[in-house]
Design a protein that fits this description.
Elements: H1 25-41, H2 63-73, H3 77-86, H4 94-120, H5 123-147, H6 154-158
């Protein structure tokens, strides 16, 4: 869940995906390995601090604790972004991979802004980032599926 984890809809993609547009299996394995390594190094923080938290109408007093939770969950983002960038390009599906990477980095930027707004107690900024986060995550998941990447397991925890 974007709000409770890192705080990562393909408009413009065609509805048909040829086999050549998919990322090759060896590269998919490398991506999965990068996700797994980052989750192992930076495991998700414990339980979200508020069981009845409404991200669309958050109490300002709760936002700093929410921001601290997000900060703990985002501590591995720089290493993860570097690991994704270091993977290079797949032998097939490089356009799909470039799209997934761009969407992942965009989602992580939204998540960072959401964290910063929460830490600052900025209700309107936090709510604005929440409104961006789920569509961005949906877009990323759609692109990942179309590219042949897993959207469950370690990679789902990273995004």
């Amino acid at each position: 869940m974007a709000c409770a984890s890192l705080a990562l809809a393909i408009s413009g993609c065609s509805s048909s995906t040829s086999a050549s547009a998919k990322i090759d299996a060896a590269f998919v394995a490398k991506v999965d390995q990068a996700c797994s390594a980052n989750v192992a190094r930076y495991p998700p923080a414990g339980t979200f601090p508020y069981s009845n938290f409404n991200p669309d109408d958050p109490p300002a007093a709760e936002l700093p604790a929410v921001g601290a939770y997000f900060a703990e969950n985002q501590r591995g983002v720089p290493a993860f972004e570097a690991a994704l960038a270091a993977l290079g390009e797949p032998s097939t599906g490089s356009s799909a991979w470039d799209k997934v990477k761009a969407l992942a980095f965009s989602f992580l930027t939204i998540a960072a802004a959401q964290k910063n707004d929460a830490l600052a107690g900025n209700v309107s900024g936090f709510v604005a980032e929440v409104a961006k986060s789920q569509p961005a995550l949906n877009e990323l998941e759609t692109a990942a599926k179309r590219a042949g990447l897993p959207v469950t397991g370690s990679c789902a925890q990273e995004f």
